[in-house]
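How a chain folds remains the central question behind the approach discussed here. The record that follows shows the chain in one-letter code together with its fold in token form:
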Amino acid sequence: MRGIPGSGVLIFFALVFIVELLAFGAIRNLLDQPKIKWRVSIGYGILSAALFGILVFAFLNPDKIRETTNYQFFYFVISVSFLNLVPKLLLAASFLISLFFRLFQAKYPAQVLLMSATILSLGVMITIGYGIAFGRTSLRVIEQDVYLKDLPKSLDGIRLVQISDFHLGSFENNRLLKRTTKLMNNLQPDLIFFTGDMVNNYYQEMVGFEADLADMKATYGKFAILGNHDYGDYTNWQNEEAKVLNHQILVEKIEAAGFRLLLNESAELDINNAPIEIIGVENWGHHPFPQYANLDKATKQTSDDSFKILLTHDPAHWAAQVIRKTDIPLALSGHTHAAQSGVQFAGIEFSPMFFVQKYWGGLYRHEDQFLYVNRGFGCVGLLGRIEMNPEITVLTLRSK
């Protein structure tokens, strides 16, 4: 893959091979009859070799991913690898632990551990499979009241609908977006906000979705910003002019769908005789994500007495440049997708994205400033969503 050094690729494949070998050891240790062991070994070997070969082919042909507008091969490689390797990681870990038990002649606990891990791994595989097959099309509406210290009383109860990270190239048709548009309109939003990543790379990904985007309605308008994928920085271009043209057409198509696209600028509204300013910055992010945001430029024309809402794609921007440095009470972000995977149990929600982004999903607060991070709509990499379904956020603003 472009950007990954050869040593990194070798380490990756070495780790994959070790996981496969250890998982194989766990399965063999659960089997007693030689014939069954032999048959399982052959089946496991053939399947693992095929999946390993797919990974090798993908790494040897990175341009098939970087230069295509059809992402099905890319999604297939990632999704199959995820489905294969995550359950085997559990098996591999259990096998290593079982070896410790066997050192002390504790064969029975070792077998119980391996059997439990096998059952758990099957459950994980089924969960991932369900997320790939159904999770990415199961809409989730999250309603949240946000109590703001300086919200004008005339704005108490205003409803904001946020949606983020469409990644339209991850959809074969517009059925889900059409259903989403109908649901959003039924929510009767005062404002609609889209917080970046309309496409994966190319403006052509919007073709066939324009009408549904245009049909999204809000009383006082709808606003959008760009995300890191909207600049075409993750693909190969014949020349810089082609990249610039792609970006220009994408911007035009977003605006043609009725969104006010804010590119390091603000828009002033008057709602119930209260001034509101919507501030939108271009993408800001840590390396390797490009930084185009200019918050100073975006807020240059704003007034001190208006209520401000900031749209910024990457939630890390809030911590770096918003809290303690501005008086913006509410910011809306996306970007994380909540890793498109996580767990929800007994009211507790967790995503492995926490280890990458502190602000990965939901509502966050620092003193009197708030950030809401939408968990995203489309997919990148893994063509599925595991317990982190496509999200429509409804924020009802309340004055303290």
Summary: The first strand starts at residue 140 and ends at 148. The chain has ten helices and 14 strands. Residues 72-103 form the longest helix (32 residues). Residues 79 and 379 are 11 Å apart (CA to CA).
